[in-house]
Specification:
7 strands, three-stranded antiparallel sheet, four-stranded antiparallel sheet, 158 residues, alpha+beta
Length: 158
């Protein structure tokens, strides 16, 4: 049985092989839920991954290279990790799954910010700092793409 997890990343990273990544998943108790409770745990895991991706893009502690280039739109990859994947507690109810390499045939979907929402977040980060950008992204929905749309998605972003 696979563990559905959510990998915070970027389009640039997707253009190469994703290696040594960490993903967010409901813990074993959350994975045992059913129906609406299970869906809520999955959605919350994706939201945590999205917050981690935003934090990484707008973290002022990052190198000067980040300051020179505009932050890159975040991508959340819904991924079915092998059940044997190493995991550690992230927070109550959620784990961080460590993945040595991501097998793209196990990707269920991709989730991205809309261009307009991302551009507004970048503007907010410049004007008010990372917190304002992260709050703005947290209040917006991500666009859904099927795993079969990766080539189109990467082509649209070139």
């Amino acid at each position: 049985m696979a563990i559905r997890c959510y990998i915070p990343t970027t389009l640039t990273a997707l253009r190469s092989t994703l290696t040594d990544v960490r993903a967010v998943a409901p813990d074993a108790q959350g994975r045992s839920l059913r129906g609406e409770e299970f869906e809520t745990a999955e959605f919350d895991a994706m939201c945590i991954a999205a917050a981690l991706a935003a934090n990484a893009e707008f973290d002022p502690a990052e190198t000067d290279a980040v300051a020179e280039a505009a932050p890159e739109r975040r991508v959340i990859v819904a991924y079915d990790a092998p059940e044997s994947s190493p995991a550690e507690l992230l927070t109550d109810g959620f784990e961080l799954i460590t993945l040595a390499e991501v097998d793209m045939t196990r990707v269920a979907s991709f989730h991205l910010d809309e261009d307009v929402v991302w551009d507004e977040a970048v503007r907010l980060a410049e004007e008010t700092g990372a917190s304002g950008a992260e709050d703005h992204l947290g209040a917006s929905d991500l666009l859904w793409y099927d795993s079969s749309e990766l080539d189109q998605l990467l082509g649209d972003e070139s």
